[in-house]
Amino acid sequence: MSASQLAPVAQARSILQLNTAYHQAKVLHTAVELGLFDLLASGPATVEEVKKGLGIAHPLAQEFLDALAALGLLEADGDRFANSGAATAFLVPGSPSYLGGSVLQHARKHYRVWGELTTALREGRAESGAEAHGPEAYPKHYADPDRARQAMAHFDTFSSFTADELARRVDWRPYTSFVDIGGARGQLASRIALAHPHLSGAVFDLPPLEPLFDELAAARGVADRLRFYGGDFLRDPLPEADVVVTGHVLPDWPDEQRQELLRRIHGALRPGGALMIYDLMADPESESVHDVLQRLNHGLIRGDSSSCTLAECHASVAEAGFEVTRTEQLDNLLGDWLIVATKR
Length: 344
Description:
This protein is α/β, with parallel strands linked by helices. Helices cover 49% and strands 17% of the residues. Strands 6-5-4-7-8-10-9 form a 7-stranded mixed sheet, with helices on both faces. It has a 3-stranded antiparallel sheet with strand order 1-3-2.
């Protein structure tokens, strides 16, 4: 039923719920920032035990925990609270599907940037958190190991689900090597390598990420099949491979630089090689509210650049010398589109 078909009170209530939707997000942000789910991983606790364990002084602790229970993130049993199944699976540090890194990134950066949406639209950029905008910010972020780890935890959240989709959907048997351009510390590359033991792979990204890559590759047991190349992918030589994967990279750049990167990728691919691009791409026929809001979010964080339409990406790929062979939407956290193209 559309909003116009609702009774007046229901329409007003719907708008009010939308107006206060940030309440839910901020409760989740704070729970992760405080370490609540980690605390409760060892067992249920009372309000007083939670306050003591987390150093909470405010008398609203009860209401805070009640809100998390109402959202399905905690379970209440008498005067004790425990993690829900969803919180245990996705919000306890160390979980294979941990989403807390992304929650923290949204709490610390995205929330502030969205708070300046009005300013961004009027003046062309958001004042709050502006240092996080655009590709030029990455070298500064990655030079600080702590900030780099925070950013990697955020990226890993999404890369895990995307890697599993690519490993499952793509027939990797014809190929023996791949490189992930802008692959961060290798979350996606390592998961693909684990799923397909015949593959050797590489990650190309900024040099400060190499120690984090080495750490992850060793922990995953794929250090003998994955290699890190540090450099600027718009200037430095790209490693040769059968497959190039790149995701959430092209929209970081203006059109001219996007096209230059695609041409460089074409030159690095071996004959018969494949390019795989995954990203948020506008498709008016299938976009949901979530898709549109994610594109708006990425545009705010990225600064001057923005996502493109499927048709525009197809045209850019063809101009760079590729033939598109496959386009489909992934079942990952963002609903990215996957474009597969072969080198002509």
